[in-house]
Amino acid sequence: MVHLPEQPVPSSPAPTAVPTSADVARLAGVSRATVSYVLNNTSAVRISEATRRRVHEAAEELGYVPHAAARSLRAGHSRMVLMPAPRVPVGPLHSQFFNDLQWALGRFDYTVVQYGGIGLNGDEAARAWAELRPVAVVVPDGGLGPRGVHILKRSGARAVVTLGPERVEGAHALLLDHVGVGHSAGAHLLARGRRRIGVVVPGEPGLEHFSRPRLAGVRRALEGTGATVTELPLTYEEEAAARLAGRWRSLGLDAVFAYNDEYAMLLMRALLDAGVDIPAGTAVVGADDLMLGRLLRPRLSTVHIELPSGRDLAELVDRVVRDPGGVPEVHQVLGARVVHRESS
Amino acid sequence: MVHLPEQPVPSSPAPTAVPTSADVARLAGVSRATVSYVLNNTSAVRISEATRRRVHEAAEELGYVPHAAARSLRAGHSRMVLMPAPRVPVGPLHSQFFNDLQWALGRFDYTVVQYGGIGLNGDEAARAWAELRPVAVVVPDGGLGPRGVHILKRSGARAVVTLGPERVEGAHALLLDHVGVGHSAGAHLLARGRRRIGVVVPGEPGLEHFSRPRLAGVRRALEGTGATVTELPLTYEEEAAARLAGRWRSLGLDAVFAYNDEYAMLLMRALLDAGVDIPAGTAVVGADDLMLGRLLRPRLSTVHIELPSGRDLAELVDRVVRDPGGVPEVHQVLGARVVHRESS
């Protein structure tokens, strides 16, 4: 961090008090209830235009903003949808999904808040989320158990939705089945006549939630065919990829499913540098269908993954908030299909 | 979205009431004040171990979680640091920075909340943030004016910090000077003997906050040298890159600063496909120093950008929260240096 010389800090003035609705009421010459009706746009109560204007002007003059928490204390719930931040670095697919979801929930007049939960786990995390009294919670990548769902519901959350490989008791579930991603890749390589298939397993912590089911999917695709699977641990570093490429011939593989496009680009580069012929000697398949994969030569084959739409998820959340009594819904939402290019 | 057949929804049972601290007090046979002291870990008040245990057991049994909002209403402020979500798609650099910041603020016992503000602008956004009564607000990419800073402070925010190209009156500023990024690239290309320099300007909305100052930086580096700058509008699509590459010879350029590594990879691929010799005919420089740039042939030259550390920013936030009266601090925090590889 490059610091500019710091300016001299004068002695602190006494902080001015935060204006309250009582201050607004006093200045406007109305009751606090009237202030609340006007600023929360309550249409049930008839209030004259002149009074409304007086309240708005007083609020403006004092710099008063209603307190969402006070409002949610009165109402018993907020319009806040809380989404814990994913615990692993997110790719462009997830960013796009989150933006869509945020936009779609905004159309239903919800506020989306992403909660930074690094260092919190399980029930402890659920308790921290519950303290904010969200009306709905969308959990992106596991870590929530049935007890956590119970804590959230007891604190007033009407909808708890998980996105992950398995359903959690008491919560609605959008199942993201990464087994299908691996299965697509395995079936494709088998159809291309490959029999000795390596599967990259990233060494970075947190990615095992995705890599394990993908590996299982490849195994399932190959079941009963006599084709073999070899696990290939790999960290996302050039040196690690070069080491793996250096012992490639001794592994005797004719194909590799490289976890995703980024690992595939890393490994394919190292294999080409080591003189491996792609795809003749080894076929390479990634996943995610990033544009960069099309820019490589040979062009990278990949598994195109379809996430649920933010709009569908927003509709589920709103439906459950309005009618929270139903049996938890379960939807299978991850689509996977191979995009065949030159590397396989 | 692939839907499983929906389960039949039984008629909704009446929702059970959310337990309150009064319920906990009743079950534990103590006052509400005692419940509050125990659950908020107030050390100023002497309470016996037995009573503490009774309160915790009652809270556990009822599934009671304190309400952060109620606590912050009493205390006058929360421990919440609010960070509006960036309005443009974030790259891996920003994700890393946000995770660092979250972790560092967590060490100071703050909770980081990212607010999804799509569709809100200026003072309207500031008002929405103020409703949550954060004790500090960190604004990542512009859009906040002096009036917004005032609204936030009036609602009780003790620290308002902006990350951006310019300071905002009343707020602390970490200045991210993207002019320096362009200047580094321009000076490098000039030193490599280039005189007719193209600068990619992405067509995607929102990126102009970064691309305009980078372009200005290249111009500044070339001032008085007789070298020329040509703006090259480009959207992030293969077809657009191919069209630009198709008329490359008519442009008469001998170098291009391609905004960042992703645009550089896209354009370099199109130029190579169009038979342009890199770097002999045209030098190419990106920015961000992504690992993928090293995997290309020729290896991509790039501007390495150093963001402020999450820890330094967390220390600034905590210092200002504890002593909010000082003159706003201004720090220059964006480092930029060229990493010279094969493409320039």
Question: How would you describe what is shown here?
Answer:
Two copies of one chain form a homodimer. With 344 residues, chain A is an alpha/beta fold. Chain A folds into three domains: 21-66, 434 Repressor (Amino-terminal Domain); 80-176 and 308-334, 3-Layer(aba) Sandwich (Rossmann fold); 179-306, 3-Layer(aba) Sandwich (Rossmann fold), CATH 3.40.50. The first copy, chain A, is built from 14 helices and twelve strands. Chain A has helices spanning 21-28, 32-39, 49-62, 68-75, 92-107, 122-130, 146-154, 179-191, 208-222, 238-246, 248-251, 261-273, 291-295, 310-322, and strands at 80-84, 111-115, 136-139, 159-164, 172-175, 196-202, 228-234, 255-257, 283-287, 301-306, 330-332, 335-339. In chain A, the strands form two sheets. The first copy, chain A, has a six-stranded parallel sheet with strand order 2-1-3-4-5-11, sandwiched between helices. A six-stranded mixed sheet of chain A has the order 7-6-8-9-10-12, with helices on both faces. In chain A, strand 9, helix 13 (291-295) and strand 10 (301-306) form a beta-alpha-beta unit. Chain A is elongated, with a radius of gyration of 27 Å. Chain A starts with 20 loop residues before the first helix and ends in a 5-residue tail after the last strand. The model of chain A is unreliable at 1-15 (pLDDT under 50). At the A-B interface, helix 4, helix 5, strand 2, helix 6 and helix 7 of A face helix 4, helix 5, strand 2, helix 6 and helix 7 of B. Strand 2 of chain A pairs antiparallel with strand 2 (111-115) of chain B, so a sheet runs across the interface.
